[in-house]
């Protein structure tokens, strides 16, 4: 079984500042890792995913994440945030041998202030 | 690609009533997932279909819950004898393949049990 812990429930930041949203996971098998974003009253949208290969993954809207196997982390970063990045962000994991059942973290609410 | 659609978007019901939600996945996707999201939490897996076969049900899914995907296209999720604890957002997702395959989420159905 897998589990995901998002270390910050809320992250306030000013516009154009950098941001990091932290995610740790645990699993007894190899995993695939995902970050999803959820805007108010909408479904989840995939930001980026790590399957294999390069540990630095780039996604949409200028986001990137780094997979660190030794620390079992998959932190999400953006060098300069915009007001429009205000949303809830979810880290998720899929067991490598599973059919794709996602296990999500509790979510981090990112609020970008002008 | 018209995306994943869910109906209704909102449902208010009295305790003890039955409710049914519908999910229409992306047409060529043979995998369909249901998740439940309560306030302040990440989505939790409920059940999974590959074509018309329901291959896994979470232990979260009590006997009052049933899901079908009769022709491998749309799916329905029924909750019988609703309880206040069933109040949540019910999310549907579909994908073309399992494992690392990207899941596309619908906007969700928000259920309120009074």
Provide the residue-averaged pLDDT of chain A.
93
Counted by DSSP, the helix tally of chain B is 0
Q: What string gives the helices and strands of chain A in order?
A: EEEEEEEEEEEE
| Overall shape of chain A | globular
Radius of gyration of chain A over alpha carbons? 14 Å
Strand content of chain B: over 45%
The main β sheet of chain A shows up as: 6 strands, mixed
Structural class of chain A: mainly beta
Instruction: Report the end-to-end length of chain A measured between terminal Cα atoms.
Output: 41 Å
Low-confidence stretches of chain A: none
Report the count of strand segments of chain A.
Answer: 12
In angstroms, what separates the terminal alpha carbons of chain B? 36 Å
User: What are the segments of chain B in which pLDDT stays under 50 over at least 5 consecutive residues?
Assistant: none
Task: Provide the β-strand percentage band of chain A.
Answer: over 45%
Helical content of chain A (DSSP H or I, runs of 4+) = under 10%
Largest sheet of chain B: 7 strands, mixed
Helix fraction of chain B, binned, reads under 10%
Annotation field: number of helices of chain A: 0
Give the H and E element order of chain B.
EEEEEEEEEEE
Radius of gyration of chain B over all CA atoms, rounded = 13 Å
